[in-house]
Structure formats: C-alpha cells, structure tokens
Amino acid sequence: MPAIADRLNNVSISASAAMTQRARDLAAQGIKVISLSAGEPDFATPSHGVEAAHEAALAGDTKYPSMDGTPALKAAIARKFKRENNLDYDASQIVVCGGGKQVIFNAMLATCNPGDEVVIPAPSWISYADIVKFAGAVPVPVACPQEAGFKLRAEDLEAAITSRTKWLFLNFPNNPTGAACSRADMKAIADVMLRHPHVWIMTDDIYEHLIYDDFKFCTIAEVEPKLYDRVLTVNGASKAYAMTGWRLGFCGGPKDLISAISNVNGQNGGGTATIVQAAAAAVLDGPQDLLRERAVIYKQRRDFVLTELAKIDGLKCHKPEGAFYIFPSISGLIGRTSRGGRRIESDTDFVMALVNEHHVATVQGAAYGMSPFFRISYATSMEKLTEACARISLFCSEMR
Ligand code: PLP
C-alpha cells in the first residue's frame, strides 16, 4: 500500500472522540451508557438561525462563498466584537472559517515555520498540540496546577518563552478545567507579553458566554490595547449558540495576519458554506437572552455535580468559573483496584474501568496533558447527571 505522510506520525486520534466511540459501542450492545465525554451543548440551535439558513437557501444564496466570509456576516462579527469585547475590527480584519478549529489550523499554517515554539497553558484542549505539530511547530506546555486554580501564572509563562516562541495560546474559560481569568490575572499575562514583542497571541474565546457567579469574562486585546497588533481573537458559534454541527468559527486580528489566514482558508476548504454564514449572522445579530438563560442552567448543573463529587472519597475538585467542564483529581484513588479487578495506576485506567464497569463515559486528564485527572462534561440533562454521579460514587466506593 502506498505510504501515509510522515507528518501524521505524531498526530493522535482525539481521546474524547475515542471515548465517545467506546460509549457508542457499548450502547450498540444494548447497554445504557451515560456520556459525559463530548464537549457539546445539549441545547438546540436558536430557531431564528435555522430559519435564516433556510431562507438563504431558498433565495438562491448557494454559490461559492468568498474565501474570507460574506460581508453580512463580517459586519455582524464586527458588531459582536464591539458590543461584547469593546474591540474594533473592520471587515479587512476578520476571517470566517469552518469552526474555531479551522481558524486555529489556518493561523498556524499561515505563520509557523519548522521548529517554531507555541506556548500552551496545560491542561489544554486536545487539538491544540496536534494542530501545532501539523504546522511543523513544537508545542511547549506550561502547567497551570490545580492548586493555582488551573490559572496561568505570569512567572511560569515568562520562563517558557524563548527566542523561538512564535505564539502563546490562551483559552479561558478553559477546556478541560473550566478555569477563567480575572482582569487582574489577564493584565499580569499581558505584562509578560509586552516584554516579548516577537510572540503572537491567539486567544480562543469560544467559552466566553459560559461563565458563572458574576465572574466577568475578559479578552487580552481589550485588557491591554498595546497588544492589539499581535493578538488573534478567535471565537465561534459552536458553544454559545449550540451550533457545533454547523461548523462556523471566526477571528479578528491585524490586517496582514488576517490576510495570510484568509489565503490559507481559500485553499483549505475555499470558504464557509453560505447558508451557515446566514445562520451565524442571524444568531449574532439576534436576541442574546438565550445566552444568559442557558448559563443559568449550566450553573445549576455545575453546582449539582460539584456537590455530588465533593461527597466522594478520593476525588478533589476545583470549582470552575466557566465552560461546561469539571476536572477532578483522582490522586486519592491511585493504587486501588476497581470492583471489576482493574488496578488504577493512571487516569486512563480510571476512565476505562468507569465506562466498562459502570457505563459512564468521561475523558482521562492525560489527553489534555495533565494527570491524574478526568474531565466531566456537564452539558447534559440533570436526570443524566444525577444518574452519572450516583454511578461514579458507587464506582469509587467499591474500590479496594
Ligand atoms: N476551542 C476549544 C477550547 C474547544 O474546546 C473546542 C471544541 O471542543 C473548539 C475550540 C472547537 O470549536 P469549533 O466547533 O468552533 O471548531
């Protein structure tokens, strides 16, 4: 068989996708699996978004799109950045892609040379390191420990930057920890970055609207305007508007960087589906009450799961400020054996025993670059969360 490219040698299959598959396999055997592994809202796409796509299709808006986004959507994105982030990006500073993931992929292809380093606070979303490797660059993780609330500490960031650093990635509220960043903490990060003008900053603000207890979201270009020319502000429709399947992401940034990203986007897909762009413009410009309403529901779920997990011996949780994830430590269970006879040497052992013996799918911390932890996504119903917490509790209490 002809060979596959070497560049795929270092790229892994996402552990959360692998766990979702394991849950599907068990379900196909008739087993009732509760899946807390997918990072996907369980809400519906707002109906005015669906209607806008339908109308666009009926009106014949079905020809090749421009490679950087439709003028109508770019105008809606510019309004969003101004309204929600106090950032001024005109149409030449915005690109629309097929998801936040494709924005980041295109940005790395547009800027990274072999051997460039990308500083990534860890734990982090599984795809960052793989995208960076795809682009020939080297991911450099910086630990954000549980004791520090999973925050990026300025001194750790400073120590990670070298003359080869090309990018710093920021993602607060964070996947997988849910940690968010206060304005003061963001300013401390910005102060470090002011000292290193050779480094771009990519801020992935995809969980911006999933934030609780009056915590205020902030984004680095707004906190430190002196960094504006070096910041790529990334966002998308997936998490806020429950539009994961539509594949719509966007970014704002300095003109030259945006035009390079747009260039890559033109070859990598050729632009985002026209009717998807119509839907995105409708939700960005439409009523925003649903964001607050849904955040209230996510907060109730977070509080419930935290309360239940706190009762379990061997687990230690940090209270996340945002996103829809909890990232408990299982250090208190290492060395024990599950009822099914699996010795728990790692978080991978833990999540595999949990899914096989009690049919709750979660993801091991190792997949996000920090062990021994596991990620729970609470983007599911209270009924399922109640059952899942009971099963996790039983699973842990049965360990010897
Ligand atoms: N960024 C982070 C931190 C994520 O967790 C995810 C999805 O899980 C994405 C980006 C992907 O977003 P999109 O669906 O817009 O590609």
UniProtKB/TrEMBL annotation:
Keyword Transferase part of the UniProt annotation: yes
Cofactor(s) in the UniProt record: pyridoxal 5'-phosphate
Organism from which the protein derives: Phyllobacterium zundukense
One of the GO biological process terms: amino acid metabolic process
PANTHER family named among the record's database cross-references: ASPARTATE AMINOTRANSFERASE
Aminotransferase class I/classII large domain location: 32-392
Pfam families cross-referenced by the UniProt entry: Aminotran_1_2
Keyword Transferase: yes
Name of this chain's protein: Aminotransferase
Alphabetized InterPro entries for the sequence: Aminotransferase_I/II_large, AspAT/PAT-like, NHTrfase_class1_PyrdxlP-BS, PyrdxlP-dep_Trfase, PyrdxlP-dep_Trfase_major, PyrdxlP-dep_Trfase_small
